[in-house]
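[job 4471] stage=fold_predict status=RUNNING
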Amino acid sequence: SQHAMIPHEVVITIGILVFFGLVAFQPMLADLTKDRAGDIPYIESTVVCAEAIVSCVLGQAISRRRISCKDVLRYLPVGLLRAVEDTLSLVCLNYIDPSLYAVLAQFRLVLTGISSRIFLKEHPNKLQFEAMGTITMSLVAFTVSYHGFGGGDKLGILLASVAVLCKVTASVYLERQVKSDDMPVPLQSATISCGTIVPALAYTFAFDMDQVRDQGLWGGWSLLTLALLALLLAKHWLGNVIVKRWSAVVKYVIHAAAVAGTYALQRIWYGLSWSLVSCMLLGILMLAVYSFAEGKRWQPTASASEASLGEKKSSASEPTVGREKPTASASEPSASQPSCDPNLKAFPETSENKLEV
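[job 4471] inference complete, writing structure tokens
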């Protein structure tokens, strides 16, 4: 008897929902590891280092291949940037609350669009640039108007901004490598993690040496810290799958949708009040992100005056002496009139303008 197979679309949907949940819950879990203290009791970079070690070992075991020095050097920029981004994403939560961090992190979509315009072949179109402008204004408005229990500390905002910049740079570089690389995802994740270990340790000894002397590298860890390590591991692996299957933009669309989840979780868990202004700004942000995604299928059409001018140029270039102008058949639609056939699409879905989410 044949076993029932789960449809491919269902597997993709489950994977995206799981990634959505991981992204939404990560800031909250990192904040919970404080155990109601003012600062995170453990050294943040040690979590990043430990996650990289586990990922490196697990990736080689699953792929049954060993990491080569050539691949490590190739992905070293990604590993270095990821070490800084992951560490600062935890450190900034000492100064700002999870919701504000989640919103600030969405500026990565704008930076990714600008970077794609400069470094990648997929250029955002006019409609997507308009959506990027709306995203930027909603982020600034939320940051100025939001009053969480972490406040809007300038140092926390600066650290989150640097983390976003590192993340975008790493993702753009990774996308260029992924599209031309047939390396399996487990081995690729292990290779990236291998380049994360040394920078994370260097950060530890450079900025937290006093804490290392007092409690050691792993002092202050708890079960919640181990849960955070597992969450980071799963998020990184699923993120690499999404970038390899689609693109970094699709990954960041999911990140933007997860902002509402982080905001709601913080309100429910800590019993905080809901702000109408904050909810409206989050709605505008998600709508702008959706417009950015939908804008990839949008193509500008020629105006009526441009079409008329093109017809005049075409008729002027063709001799008409001794010939009768052919008339349009009743069964064929005119070029100046839209087709009435409902099966014809105004914008055919090609491989260039179809966005799979």
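[job 4471] summary: The chain is about 70% helix and 0% strand.
[job 4471] exit 0
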